[in-house]
Amino acid sequence: xxxxxxxxxxxxxxxxxxxxxxxxxxxxxxxxxxxxxxxxxxxxxxxxxxxxxxxxxxxxxxxxxxxxxxxxxxxxxxxxxxxxxxxxxxxxxxxxxxxxxxxxxxxxxxxxxxxxxxxxxxxxxxxxxxxxxxxxxxxxxxxxxxxxxxxxxxxxxxxxxxxx
Length: 164
Hints:
By secondary structure, this protein is mainly alpha-helical. Helices cover 76% and strands 4% of the residues. Strands 1-2 form a two-stranded antiparallel sheet. InterPro entries: GtrA_DPMS_TM.
């Protein structure tokens, strides 16, 4: 394996990012369920707000634990680039969640799990397709955050000059 590829997929960073992304996924699933229930929105309309709630949690956890960027002193720059990458990945999450859900939903009834001693039913079909979308987002996020967000690429400086 080449040095560049080995550096991109080193076990320590990949494991740390997987743990951080797992926590973010839990936040996203919980937020999506609450948004659907509290605001009475559709599954499709709950995905992006839940994703962006998880994005806030994910930024700080990723900066602190995943890519050794704790001491970088470039938090504003990293946050700007993180939001760019995460917005792109948010679209990936939405597409790879809603398209499979519509495909499955149009052919089969949704599968529900009723929480014992509760009135809450969990839509397993929606959770499965959301996790599917998160998987694709995980891949794009990991690669882009590792190679762009938490690296000094000059992009942020060029963008600031463009805005002036």
